[in-house]
Amino acid sequence: MQRHALPARFDPLPAGTVPIVPTPGYPGTFTHTPSQPPIRRPPGRGEIAGPIALHRKLPCGEANLAEPSPGRPALGQLIHLAGQVLDEDGRPVADAVVELWQANAAGRYAHANDVRDAPLDPNFRGHGRVRTDAEGRYGFFTIRPGAYPVPGAAVWWRPPHIHFSVLGPSSLARLVTQMFFPGDPLNPLDHIFMAVPDTAARDRLLARPLPPAEVGAGWLGYRHDIVLRGRQATPPLA
Amino acid sequence: MGGAVIPLSCHTIGPFFPHPFVQEGDNDLTRIAPDAPPSRRGSRIRLQGRVLREGGLPCVNAVVEAWQADAAGRFRHPADPGWQEADPEFLGWGRAVTDAEGRYEFHTLLPGGFLDRAPHVNLLVMASGLMRPVSTTLFFPGFSEANAADPVLGLLPAARRPLLVATEDGSGGFRFDILLRGPASEETPFFED
Ligand SMILES: [Fe+3]
Fold first, then answer.
1. For residue A102, how far is its CA from the centre of ligand 1 (angstroms)?
2. Given an 8 Å threshold on Cβ–Cβ distance, is B9 in contact with A196?
3. pTM value?
4. Does B189 fall in a domain?
5. Smallest Cα distance from A9 to chain B, Å
C-alpha cells in the first residue's frame, strides 16, 4: 500500500485532446456512440479509488513479443519500445499495469476475429503486459507492426500502430490509447488518429525515435511516455 | 518532476483485444489473485448481462471492467479513510469480455453502501466502435429507499433511473444489459467524471 500515492485532483481533459464522436469516416462509431450526452458526475470515493496491486490479479512480465523462443526472432523490424507512465504533474506512476497489443509485420493480428489472409508469424506473440517500476518505467521488445486494411470499410488502411491499455492507481486514470509512428504517410489518412482534433495532442501519440547510437546494434529504439489523468499526488500512506 | 503535462488521448480498443488478457477468474471480484482464496465476507452474487449497440445487436469482444466497494462499503485504497478496515481478501475489480451474443458475467459479493451512496457497481465498457470508453453504474433492486436517496442516481431524470437498476435473474443473480446507443428511453445512461 505504501507505494501508491493518490492523485488528489482530476481536471477535465483539455478541449481538442478527446476524439470526436461519432468519428467521421469510422462507421462503427455511429452505431456504438451513445446518443445522449454523458452525465457529469462529481468524482466520489469510488471513482477516485481503484484496485491496488492489480499486478497480482493480472500477472505481469510478458515484455518480449519479438523473440518468444531464443534464437527465433519475429519477422519485421525489431524495436525496443520504452517510456514512463506519468501523472499530469510529470510524477512517475509506479505499479501501473501496462498492456500492449499489435499486428505482426504483415499487419495481421493473432486473434480469431482477424480473418484476413495475411500470414501469421509463429515467432511473434502480439501482446504483452508489464508493471511499471518505482520510476514509472515500462519497456517492451517487439517489432514495428504492419499496416492493415479495415475490414468492411471502403478504402481505409490503419497505419502501423500499437494498442495500449494502462491501469493506474485510480479508476479515473484508466486509459486505452494507440501509439503511432512519426512520418508514416498513412497517419494523416487514418480516421482514428485524425479523430483527435488538436495537432499537439496527435503529436503526443507518436513514438519518439531514439538515435541508433543510443540503442545499440540489432534493433531500433523508440520512446513513448504515457500521461494519465490526475495530479497533486498526496504523500503515500504507510 | 517536470512541469504540468497533458494526458494522452483515448482511442478505441478495436476488434482485436487479445483473449489471453482475460483469463478464467478475471471476472471474479472476490479474489485478489488467480490463486488467492475468494473472500467470504458477504453474500456471493452473479452479475450478468449483454453489451448491445444500436438496434439491440450484440457487441462481440467488448471489454467490461467492474469496480465496487466490499460488502461493508469500503475500498482498500487510500481514497477511503477507512481503507485499513476494508476486506483484505476482496479485490473489488474484475474484467470480462463479451461473447458472440454480447454476454458478460461477473462473480462478486453484494457491495455495501457508504456515505450517502446506495450499494452499486461501477462498470467501464470498451469496445470496437467506441472511441471513448463509457462509464455507468449498476444499482440493485431491493434497495429502493437507498436508491431514491443516492446522489448519483439522482443526477438522472426520474424516467431514466430504472435503466441503472439491475433485475433479479431468477437464480440468485442480477441481470444488467448495457445498450450503448438507442432511443433515450432505452439507452443506458453514462457518466463523465
Ligand atoms: Fe489495431
1. 6
2. yes
3. 0.96
4. no
5. 12
